[in-house]
Design brief:
Eight copies of one chain form a homooctamer. Chain A has 207 residues and is an alpha/beta fold. In chain A, 38% of the residues lie in helices and 20% in strands. In chain A, the strands form two sheets. The first copy, chain A, has a five-stranded parallel sheet with strand order 6-5-7-8-9. A four-stranded mixed sheet of chain A has the order 1-2-4-3. In chain A, strand 7, helix 5 and strand 8 (157-161) form a beta-alpha-beta unit. The longest helix of chain A is centred in the N-terminal third of the chain and has 15 residues, at 16-30. Chain A is globular, with a radius of gyration of 17 Å. Chain A binds chain B through residues 1-5, 133-134, 154-156, 158, 180-181, 183-190, 193, 196-197, 199-200, 203-204, 207, and chain B through 2-5, 133-134, 154-156, 158, 180-181, 183-190, 193, 196-197, 199-200, 203-204, 207. The complex binds adenosine monophosphate (AMP) (4 copies) and magnesium ion (8 copies). One adenosine monophosphate sits between chains H (5, 8-10, 36-37, 193, 195-196) and A (85-87).
Chain lengths: 207, 207, 207, 207, 207, 207, 207, 207
């Protein structure tokens, strides 16, 4: 059945109290709630006040999950997540954890820089053999990794711009625009929208 | 094998002479070349100078195809293309013809406005029954159709902003930004990038 | 008589001391002063230093009112305020409280998301029966709620963009632009201008 | 009953043939169709091919109307349209004709410049006596007229920015932004959106 | 002799230590140094470490002056500074103090709002009688005061946009653009550039 | 008496017929009308239809003047106009002719490039000796001339950005922004606003 | 001696007559003048009116040269110019011809697309062996070629963005921004500034 | 051999722990690692945890270096770094230290303002005599120094915009745009990209 987004709550910009209340209400109503861009205080209060619910914390992705019980989800669909380095990692992880929570098996390669183009080929070869159905490729600054990857594989690529870089075109703007202008085949999501990228990848992989 | 973009030539911004030369060279080398955003003069010169090659003209999509011979491509993958009305039609058609040229069976619904939300439901129901694997939804001005469609189906949606609208946010800008901000699940392509949307849809449908 | 704005003071960006001084001066001169976007410190100092004046505090709207005495204002004009959820609530409340302070009866519906379009219809039906004369519809991110509501009713709609959303088009920019581009009939106010929306709604309802 | 926008067709950007076809189809289905931003060629072809339908042409507003028969609409609601001079006139007329087509009695004052502030007062005094319920005030360049008018009357004002002015802030951008920032009470529509302003004014006047 | 800017030091963005050092070096070399946009810490350290130099502090303008001795400057040139209210005051004061430090007699009127247009006329009448040679008019949000003033007097007006306002066109952007688009005669300086406006006014008044 | 702008008509964007009508009406009412940014057709029609009025044509400035009779205006105030070269000349001329029409004696130097800084000094020396009271300095592309000139003289400078340059910052944008950011003392007018610069210069020179 | 730009004239935006006059004056004064972005009419008039001067025409680069006599310039400095395809060619040629006119030996490779990364390596290997001292790499749309090239060689790279691409980031904007954000080592020139890139390359190669 | 950037780590935006870990790993693998935009906490933790590695700290440039041992690098290539004053100094120093770390002899002149043009000539004369091969010229606000310097020397100039200035065009935007529009010969790097400017200068000087 449906792979929509109803149970996800954006932590960023919400007061801790409000966030915890919504997370719990959702988890009770739907069996599970997913909190994204969760800050430290929100995480701690969730832990403290979760009551009977079970909580899962994804450190690198800043994602919290509340559940009524341990549910076994059968794995379905295969997704790959690629990024170039340290700065893009939290957003890449947000995409990865989201796709996993939606039931996919997710492969990742996090140290594939454009400089190290030779490092990408064996990764893509393996992904191809594993029949991975869609890739999320994250990149900040000049956003050059997704077009390069898309030019080297036939697996569909979702470009995920990350808000790094300073000066003109900084904060992900150059990355977004150059992905939109890419000569290789890409669709894109908004800057830092790791959740959207991961959820869309899961939807494609499972369709 | 590969579903890349190598054989597509952007007509827009090229001198007619150059365009015709590249189209022919490509068709000879690869068996087929696809010209997009082809203007009248380019079309006529292509027709006149195509020599032994065969030419296909897609009026509403402004796409020209040169081929060495009639090839039978087995249909593979199912794609849906939806737009709201007259203004978005040429770009929607560009997506449709592109996906067809890449071997997909394409369904389309071109008069589904937001105003007529009741018109969308039966279309989506049918697409679901037909096991369509991906939708391209085109929209100009406020770009509100793709989010609405994405909220009503589990088929993955590619948002295709169209350069309509005047004043602030005109020329597809509001459409692009609101698709990037969408609360429903979407990936997007650039403004008027019907070719990219259609090619990506084909790639997803065939993967 | 007049339904102007003379007695409203924007708290944001004013030093606490200055803010309190102006609020008191206004209240004494006009019988009442309204402070908007009032922060905690400003609120506390107002409370402490209000002297003989009476103070009203609207928590969710961050609005403070100073009055010379309890005045009974007869209710005149009916306004509806609609928003989709948690993030838009403070700005929607700013509009609501403003319209009430200007003498209107205000109805509100704060959990009407686009996803839950079925939730909007009964609300609009009731508002119609109640002869509500104008609606304020608040929305952040892609700003899609006001056009949808405007497409479902004949009550005039004022679109109120809210500064939510991150990445391209974030901070209310996509919301504002897509409301300006809306195919449904809307007028708009600036991003986060709950006060303007509420005051204008009151003016329309009372004219 | 309903005062929606269904029967209006934007001429701008449509091929003449398509425009004429839609205008006729609409007029037949609904009894009347309204074409806005109609260019010369579109107007002439409409005249030539209108068949049994009746046509009305509004020169200064570039609006064409096709009707099945002469219908008598009882006048309901009073609207005022104000602008400063020559450059804003076509857009102001678009608003005026629209409101008239929707059944309102429209008053207009087209030579009220900011320079001539003394000229505005008697106009507003008369509008007040006539119980006009809403004003559309059009302005290009610095957009200063609508705030000034709004500061001088209690009739609600819709600001209509016009795409005049060159250099930074030209093409209506400064006008739109300064109306959004106005200290006087205004709602606004998009740049050159005379149709939206007129239709909204009619809706407010008739509610 | 020359009325240049050599002795002015922008405090904003400089480390306190660096600021104090430059202020002292300048004061010793030129007899006087002027620090603008000076924060609290910078002011206190200047006071503490001024040694033999004399210090003048202009609270509302955030301007500090270091001098080798009490100098008598004969007054020359007359400048007027006008603004609408509380929010614009510090920038208006920066202009006023700067013009005074450059030897002008400065008149000011700080509560002349657009709403209170009747309040402007007697001020301008007096300025005219006093033979004031140039006006600085500060305004934030929609920047409508300078055009209005320029339309009511023959004294040349320098428009000074102030970084107030939120949402689209906020932070002085609408004010700057609408002054650049003004139909009345204006020259402008950058947003919050009270120092530039005041220094230019002094230069004009003294030429 | 007054040196306002009432009798000036912007030709750009007006239909020839409308332009000619307004020019004549103004000339009759006020004794003289000034048309700026007048195109060829407008000029020719004005000539043909001027009737009893006298016409003056300023070729390089694209300014037309209609007058009831030859009037002798005594010269009052001295203005200097400086630009770097060919591209800025028409806008510089617009400023020059405007100041002359408002009664000033105008000096000009049109081949003073930044490259030729040695060429500026003797010009400024002469202007100083002639007691010129204000300079208009026009510049496109990087807008570097006005700051350089302002750094070399005590005569007040009005920076006039010109819409030259291509790529990022082209069309006068870089010129305007760098004049607003200038470390030398400048006030500015909008891009290509030669009329405003000239009129303001005349006003300053005559005050 | 000096390798400045004094003798170059931008044709774009100049009236043919003016352009021809300046070209001739310059050629006579300096022995040679270089016209860039020269259109057809300008070229023809130059040919017709060149008198005793000699003319050189560079078709692909739109560059015209007027000379007093055949001069032999000894070749000095080696420059490489690289671009991906048809659309970037005229701008790449502008850079190449400029560097040649300034006395360099220029190597070029015009069909090195990112897709064909294997095509770049042998080119760079050869350039290295030839001791080329600087590369100009032109790219439109997403501007991804210069970073890729810079990542594969130690020869300094000047990025030259080209005004291709449509939609968001089109007209060279994405290309410029992503070059400014590049993780590889690049300096850049403005969009379409082939002349600047070529002249700077020559200067570096000859220093 | 190669003069790439592999061993440089951007401190800004990295968690201290991550930063220290990468710095150490790099230093061990390559013999040296360079940390740029290093904040206080990062510097202190690096010092504390450097183990056997040696650390070098460049206070004004905010650059940290970790090394396995004292290496002697022979000096090769000469670079000049110029800026106008206090505000640009840290970025100019970032460029200077980077070029030194890459093995160049670097000359600098940090108090050469545009106002003090006479101060630049002797500096450039000396640089010429010393056979400096490339200049980095840093400037904020209106960015006018690099064009002026480039107009006075034949040494190639890299323009380095600095994020100073407030209001329109502030934060380095006017500086970047006016360098891109410069009439003198310049290539540029991004705003505040001292590292890129310095590394590119070193590469050019050593090629
Ligand atoms: N309509 C189109 N929109 C976007 N990309 C296109 C379009 N048509 C062709 N392309 C791609 O653009 C590139 C061709 O660019 P060009 O060398 O200018 O013909 C190839 O990567 C094509 O696949
Ligand atoms: N939240 C608000 N948004 C927009 N305008 C406001 C708000 N609160 C007060 N105002 C108006 O802002 C003006 C007061 O500005 P100030 O002088 O800064 O207090 C008055 O015209 C008020 O009616
Ligand atoms: N508030 C201010 N706004 C604009 N420019 C200023 C201001 N204060 C000082 N200046 C000028 O900024 C330059 C000094 O910059 P700095 O070297 O950073 O102190 C001098 O040209 C001053 O005249
Ligand atoms: N200050 C700086 N400005 C620009 N790029 C830098 C800077 N410092 C390091 N880099 C480069 O940024 C990349 C490292 O990014 P990261 O993976 O975030 O450490 C490498 O290519 C470095 O050479
Ligand atoms: Mg591929
Ligand atoms: Mg869905
Ligand atoms: Mg409706
Ligand atoms: Mg009012
Ligand atoms: Mg005046
Ligand atoms: Mg000066
Ligand atoms: Mg390299
Ligand atoms: Mg030079």
């Amino acid at each position: 059945d449906r792979i929509g987004l109803p149970e996800a709550i954006l932590g960023e910009g919400k007061k801790t109290e409000t966030f915890v209340k919504i997370m719990k209400k959702m988890a009770k109503r739907k069996g599970r709630s997913i909190g994204t861009r969760v800050n430290k205080e929100q995480k701690q209060q969730l832990q403290k006040n979760k009551g009977q619910l079970e909580m899962e914390w994804h450190e690198k992705a800043n994602i919290a999950v509340l559940k009524t019980e341990k549910t076994k989800q059968k794995e379905e669909g295969k997704v790959g997540v690629i990024c170039a380095g340290t700065a893009d990692l939290p957003i890449a992880e947000e995409a990865k954890v989201t796709a996993e929570l939606l039931g996919c098996k997710v492969y990742n390669a996090y140290d594939v820089g454009v400089a190290g183009i030779h490092r990408i080929l064996p990764v893509l070869k393996k992904y191809n053999e594993e029949n991975i159905q869609v890739l999320v490729v994250a990149a900040g600054r000049d956003g050059s990794l997704p077009p390069v990857v898309a030019g080297m594989t036939d697996i569909p690529v979702i470009g995920l711009p990350v808000s790094t870089g300073y000066g003109a075109g900084g904060n992900g703007e150059a990355a977004l625009l150059s992905m939109l202008q890419s000569c290789s085949l890409l669709t894109v999501v908004n800057i830092d929208a790791g959740f959207t990228a991961g959820a869309m990848a899961a939807k494609i992989a499972k369709t």
